[in-house]
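Reviewer 2 asked us to include a model.

Predict the structure of this chain.
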Amino acid sequence: MTIDWANFAPWTSLLAGVILGASAGAFALLNGRVAGISGMLSSLVSKAEGKSEKLLFMLGMLLAPLLWQLFQTLPAIEFTAGWELTLIAGVLVGFGTRYGSGCTSGHGICGLSRLSPRSMVAVLSFMATGFITVYVIRHLIGA
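Predicted model (structure tokens):
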């Protein structure tokens, strides 16, 4: 493995992590709920309470790259998967977030910070699945 030193950005990554942690913590303090994106998205399409703050949180996530672009150019995005693979991946992620009662943000950021055993199992499960998937696709299939 080699590091792309020209695009290595530890300070911006650290800043993003601090902002993400602060926003998840503020959401929990102000609303008494974790900032799990799949749960927020699910509650926006259902008849759950507190839609306005969840909508604002999600809107902030969508607008953050536009705000960042005022200070620095966004990295180029290269998308090489076809629509079929993207559709399959989306369905699998949707199934996984429902089956695991949350997503990476809910379990990985909010759950682990609360020392939730359920979130620890979920994070270990999806990280192991990701590692295995990358290994199989890159080294066994050769894609």
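The mean pLDDT is 84. DSSP finds six helices and no strands in the chain. We have added this to the supplementary material.
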